[in-house]
Amino acid sequence: MTSIFEGTLIRLRAREPEDAPLLYRWFNDTEVTRHLAMRYPLSMKSERDFIERVSAPGYAHAGFAVETLAESRLIGGVDLLNTTPECRCASLGIAIGDKTAWDGGYGTDTMRTVCRFGFEMMNLHRIELEVYAENQRARHVYEKVGFVVEGRRRDALFKYGRYQDVLVMSLLEGELQVEQRQ
Asked: Which homologous superfamily is 10-125 in?
């Protein structure tokens, strides 16, 4: 049996202090953060503090580094957070910071792997996320793994001199779309 932390292309692991320089570089790159809520430069100290805070994943915040299976190369991070045991619901955030990994299936595999983990190991019933309406790449990935649009928050985000709509999407237990084999 494959590890619950592994997909076909990626592995989820705890974030380590050694990850800070790469995360610092990615999250100060406007191309990487274009579709993230981040807008201010991050210091190396703030990145190290973040890693320290989330280095021990648990039910309230299951955060992971994402690395490739083939090379064990760090390419991003993913988090299930704001988890509520009463509702069995969590919010999902993902960032593939390594631009060489974009459009290679790593984001899709990360989404499938972390959602599978949430449903099978955390006993979640619902995973939700927010995505900028203009972020076609992310929307395609989310819909491919089974997320559905529940609503639109009009002009909910101001960034780059204008307002943007934000879509609310969710995936319920039993709706995860597995990879289609050719």
From this structure: Gcn5-related N-acetyltransferase (GNAT) (3.40.630.30)
